[in-house]
């Protein structure tokens, strides 16, 4: 599509004439047909990525379930050894994020995503056979290395198939599958613990063995269901969509943000995306949000145990807060896409997270502390797909999108490192230092979002007056 045509269509989309990108791209399909196309993309792309991501979340966070199922005693995880094992995962997970989205383009989504998923399944299986704590250290490093490419690659791939105001719901559904499965991972772990003694293996070993096998099976299935980029789908004439339907998707993306066509990879152009300050603002927000979400994911069974619940109750009570998170996530994503807003959601959820943290750390009633867990799990996890969509709504260009997906999730890895350290065993049962740290993180989210909102509003005003062109495309406006 010519650049002038793209500019004209973007101007229609953002210029206030009442039309959106779907309408601009609707040359040959009825609204009902367009919905059917989107549903097929949702089923094949979003659902597949979501199922694979859910097993990723379970595999990286099942350490806490194994810890209270006997692993700490068998491997002598005294002092800071447990936190070290949690931390080691995030070192490679963070460092290997940047090249992931480049590899995705070069290798292709099907072999790349299915291949790394199968690989970390093998590593997870190996967790069940270690006999000394330090032998698990290299396995955690390998697990982080293989999982590093998955999340940013999924964000990037999904963003190439949907227009800006379709992404929040898709990211939420993608992440919701993972969160829901993660919430019920305690139930799964409790069930696997009942295999204690089978073949002379302790219950915690069966958690790793069975979940590793499940991961490898899902990876094999995913190889046959993952879809390629829309421009490659046209070239390969996949049965997933016809060439005519793929062309409609490409035109829709071009009408929305003018970056449907992929440029030849240029390292300088890719790296130059890092000169945009807002890219690092998005990354910092994601870092601070993930600090809270990972801290809860890794330590919630242990925290509940410290509240006085039994081992079984601590495993089972993990699930309800995550069910609440899923409900809140879908409601908020619908609101965010319909009203084309993200910043107020981020600020509201961060505020709710702070309130929940205060209840967890500064009240004595078990009921109020558990209610605080509900608030923290729901609000913090709702903010994750919101910041993904916030970033995706405010950038343009395929390689910039690839760079930003990697930096976003890379900083999420840094948040994971922080989250693995904030709740320390010696701070039980109130974990005050961890509470202070996560309250600070959410306060910083509010500040950064407020600063970005002021900047975006000023830029939009200048663009309306014809004084600047945002993101190199006339008619483009920032989402606030």
UniProtKB/TrEMBL annotation:
Superkingdom assignment: Eukaryota
Alphabetic keyword roster: Membrane, Transmembrane, Transmembrane helix, Transport
Protein location: Membrane
Main location: membrane
Region (Disordered): 1-27
Residue spans crossing the bilayer: 45-70, 82-100, 112-135, 141-161, 173-192, 204-226, 279-304, 316-336, 343-364, 370-390, 402-423, 435-454
Membrane disposition: Multi-pass membrane protein
Compositional bias (Basic and acidic residues): 1-22
Any GO molecular function: transmembrane transporter activity
GO cellular component: membrane
Boundaries of every Major facilitator superfamily (MFS) profile domain copy: 45-461
Name of the featured protein: Major facilitator superfamily (MFS) profile domain-containing protein
